[in-house]
Amino acid sequence: MKKGLEKLADFLRDRPLILASCALICAVLGAVLLYNQVLLNRTVQTKLASAEAETLPSIHWYDEQTTAPAATTQTPVQSIETEPAAAEYVVNTNSKKIHKADCRYAESLKPENRAEASETQIPDLLADGYTYCSVCCG
Ligand SMILES: [Zn+2]
After folding, report:
1. Pairing of strands 97-100, 89-92
2. Any idea what DSSP says for residue 114?
3. Measuring CA to CA, how many Å separate 98 from each of 54, 84, 112, 123, 125?
4. Tens digit of each residue's pLDDT (9 = 90 or more) over 2-12
5. Which of 122, 114, 130, 123 has the alpha carbon at shortest distance from 103?
6. Cα gap 110→95, rounded to integer Å
């Protein structure tokens, strides 16, 4: 191995032009690689900067998205809360009386004559011949 290196050294010593051109090529290649590295660094940095600029509004967008489902999850809760209020009336389909849900007559209704009604259904029920209970709605 040492002999081989010595042979190579002798070979290069005899041909300084080859050594010089090799050194020149190495220097040029090194410079080109360094320049490419600098260029790459710059492009990466600018890309990172632009990516940062792009991610900032998107983070803001996700924030809006995370608050938006919170708002939409509140809506079903509200609709669930309003649902008992929607059925705040109980009607006797046999006697065609409209009771409030907490009326003692509504509580004693037979299941086959009992129907729940919301306030929006009351006009239709009145048109259908239903009347208000005089005890709870009088
Ligand atoms: Zn009643």
Report:
1. antiparallel
2. E
3. 61, 16, 15, 11, 8
4. 678 888 778 77
5. 114
6. 11
What CA–CA distance (Å, rounded) separates 109 from 126?
A: 19
d(CA 43, CA 14): 45
How far apart CA 99 and CA 91 sit, in angstroms, is: 6
Phi, psi angle pair for 91, to nearest 5°: -115, 145
Ligand 1 midpoint to CA 84 (Å): 17
pTM, 2 dp: 0.39
Report CA(19)–ligand 1 centroid distance (Å): 112
How do residues 44-101 score in pLDDT, each as one tens digit?
A: 888 888 777 766 555 555 555 555 555 555 555 555 444 444 579 999 999 999 999 9
Q: Return d(Cα 128, Cα 89) in angstroms, integer.
A: 16
Q: If you measure from the C-alpha of residue 110 to the centroid of ligand 1, how many angstroms do you get, rounded to a whole number?
A: 14
CA 127 to centroid of ligand 1, rounded, Å = 19
For position 116, what pLDDT does the model report? 95
